[in-house]
Amino acid sequence: RVFLLRIFTLVALIGGLYALGEFRRRRPGEPPLDKGLVPWLGHVLEFRRNTLTFLERMKQKHGPVFTVQLAGFYFTFVQDPLSFGALVKASREKLDFNKFAAHLVRRVFNYEAIEADHNILQISSNKHLKGNGLEVMTQAMMSNLQNLMLYNVGLPADKKTWMEEALFAYCYNVVFRAGYLSLYGNEPFDSKSSEETAREKDRAESEALFYEFRKYDQLFPNLAYGVLPPGKKREADRLTDYFSNFLSVQKMKTRDNISRWIWDVQQAQEEAGMKESMINRHMFVLLWASQGNTGPSSFWLLLFLMKHPEALKAVKEEIDKVVKESGQEVQQGGPLLNLTREMLMKTPILDSAVEETLRLTVAPLLTRAVLQDMTIKMADGRQYFIRQGDRVAVFPYSAVHIDPEIHPDPHSFKYDRFLNPDRTKKTDFYKAGNKVKYYTMPWGAGVSMCPGRFFATNELKQFVFLMLVYFEFELKNPDENIPGIDFRRWGFGTMQPDRDVQFRYRLRH
Ligand code: HEM
Ligand SMILES: *[C@@H]1O[C@H](CO)[C@@H](O)[C@H](O)[C@H]1NC(C)=O
Ligand SMILES: *[C@@H]1O[C@H](CO)[C@@H](O)[C@H](O)[C@H]1NC(C)=O
């Protein structure tokens, strides 16, 4: 009996190790395999601590394609920008995005995704977040930005008084709240006299929402990795409920100006038979996707402009010219600027500064589940076998954004990096003599590419445009260094700074 028990224990042990992936060996034709020392977990601790330095270390050791074990999954990283096309265009029968995304939103938002979600979002975004659909959104965003930026500064007595704020807190606050109001609508009013009360309510409610959102924002990286301690996890669950109630379908029905983007998604999910409580949770998923990155991006953009006077000057001149050409003039006590989409399409210098900011500060991790055994073909003709059940990933920040061959002097902010001498958009970038098609990827690529990217760019530009038109602003300490990056957020979109910086602003006119 004892003997049998021993055999049984041994079999269980081997079975366990097998399940933990301990016996996996690199097969001929597969990428280099690096399992790490810890069973099952593999390299996940180092990966989580600093994704960038980990991937750079692996690339040094194995070259641009390698397979690593991360918390029970084998991830093959393809870090050769010339070979991205093959991945981005791989058929959905082989590389699947939805499975991974559905897993993440279940863990992070308690939201059960349905098959149709991806299509619903694509259709609604194509209609309302790009092209002509953007005209309505631009109007809404402008009106909300002005409500938030100007309500406390209009007094003549204040004109030459500097107001001091922390830059990250200020930018994130204003852009988050204006974006939220533009997508989820305003408090209704029925007369001129109730208008000011309604505006005040919009300001107060969006402030409360932002306050809670920032708590969630702090918990997010560990929540996404599934390593929040129980107390914090309860806090995250409480917040999810708070947001679902705040943004509920019933509450939205009482608001004005709710965007067609939100409206259409709600309708389509209702028609697909989704329970209302689940649609409410999805409303929070969309708040997260739409408001988590734009605010931090606007911070980096303003900071880079303040640290680079020649860039600030060039953008300011461009903007002043556009305002003048629109026949408007911004004066004290005069009408507010009507900043239209047409005006926003005449700013190539600002466009380049935005793109450069995203290159330096946006670092998504693009992940696909491998549904069938497959081969990836590299640009240089090499091929690699990839196993079903594994994952394929790209981290464009290290593979392209800071590759010195593609972007010389990659850690410097050069506002005109994406500008040709004739002021058209520069799209020619090279590596080893080959043209690089994916020369930045802040929005991801292929099926999962950000459907809000046109609106997001528009928001950033509107915010900076209005800041420059209405205010003069400067760093409190002109010699302020650019803060470091909070490494915990690699892979989640726009990076956040590891500390805030003080700035001050006052009305220009
Ligand atoms: C600077 C701002 C933004 C950045 C850097 C950004 C970046 C991204 C990235 C990288 C993805 C793809 C994630 C992946 O492949 O796993 C994504 C997805 C998404 N983004 Fe954005 N985004 C921004 C702003 C916005 C805005 C303003 C909206 C909406 C108004 C939006 C809506 C979405 C949605 C709905 C998805 C999920 C798409 C899907 O599941 O197919 N994003 N975003
Ligand atoms: C709806 O948006 C427009 C601007 O797009 C604004 O003028 C109007 O006041 C908004 N309605 C409410 C109730 O805020
Ligand atoms: C701003 O200009 C656009 C286009 O010329 C116009 O449709 C819109 O009504 C104007 N908005 C305001 C608030 O004046």
UniProtKB/TrEMBL annotation:
Keywords: Endoplasmic reticulum, Heme, Iron, Lipid biosynthesis, Lipid metabolism, Membrane, Metal-binding, Signal, Transmembrane, Transmembrane helix. One of its GO terms (biological process) is lipid metabolic process. GO terms for molecular function: heme binding; iron ion binding; sterol 12-alpha-hydroxylase activity. The keyword Iron applies. Its cofactor is heme. Substrate binds at R107, N293, R391. Gene3D superfamilies: Cytochrome P450. Coiled coil: none annotated. It is found in: Endoplasmic reticulum membrane. Belongs to the cytochrome P450 family. This is Uncharacterized protein. It comes from Mola mola.
